[in-house]
Amino acid sequence: MATDRDAQRRELEEIRRKFTEMGARVGSLFEPAPPNDQDEDIRPVRPALAAPEQREQPASAGPSRLTVAAVAVALLVGTGLGYALPRSSAQRVASAAQPPVSTQAPTASSLAAPPRTQTSVPPACLETARKGDLTIHLYTINVRDRRLVQALKAYTLASQACRKEASP
Q: Are the C-beta atoms of 135 and 151 separated by less than 8 Å?
């Protein structure tokens, strides 16, 4: 294993040396150009950067005990407040909403069920939904030919008929 690490270090040093040589030949784009009377090949060679220091990772990379305890306490407090607060306000609302008890017997008219409204959908609107589903299906399976054009036209006409039939 030590030979692999040594080989990697040597390779890294060689790459740094090559970059330093290339940088000396090319120069920096951030520095002004040298005067014209100097030879462009003669430039000072800069030393390579030192290898970065590697930090040792701590044995336990997980969260500290204090952090875990703080999160647990916050969750417990939040749960307790969430359980306690709505119940107290719900009891207040329920006690205020109770009607006074009357001594009269309920009449038959007050016990009758409210009339149910019957919703009806015009047949043209059902046909519009079917044609819309067909159009979406053709788009989904990537059909881009005459069938899609016909489905779009049929959907448009059915949609207009639905609007006419559904309007009062």
A: yes
CA 34 – CA 36 distance, rounded (Å): 6
Per-residue pLDDT of the chain (168 residues; tens, 9 = 90+): 568 889 999 999 999 888 888 766 666 666 666 666 555 555 556 666 777 777 666 555 677 889 999 999 999 999 988 888 866 555 665 566 666 566 666 565 556 677 777 778 888 999 999 999 999 999 999 989 999 999 999 999 999 999 998 887
CA triple 89-93-96, angle to 5 deg: 140
Supply the pTM of this predicted model: 0.32
Q: What is the CA angle 48-50-56, rounded to 5?
A: 155
135 membership: H or E segment, kind and range: helix 123-140
Given CA atoms 98, 99, 102, 106 in this order, what sign does their dihedral have? negative
CA atoms within 13 A on the CB side of 87: 6
**How many other CB atoms sit within 10 Å of the CB of residue 18?**
11
Using DSSP, how many helices (H) and how many strands (E) does the chain show?
5, 0
DSSP 111: H
The label of the residue with tokens 């949609």 reads 159
Tokens 């609302």 belong to residue: 93
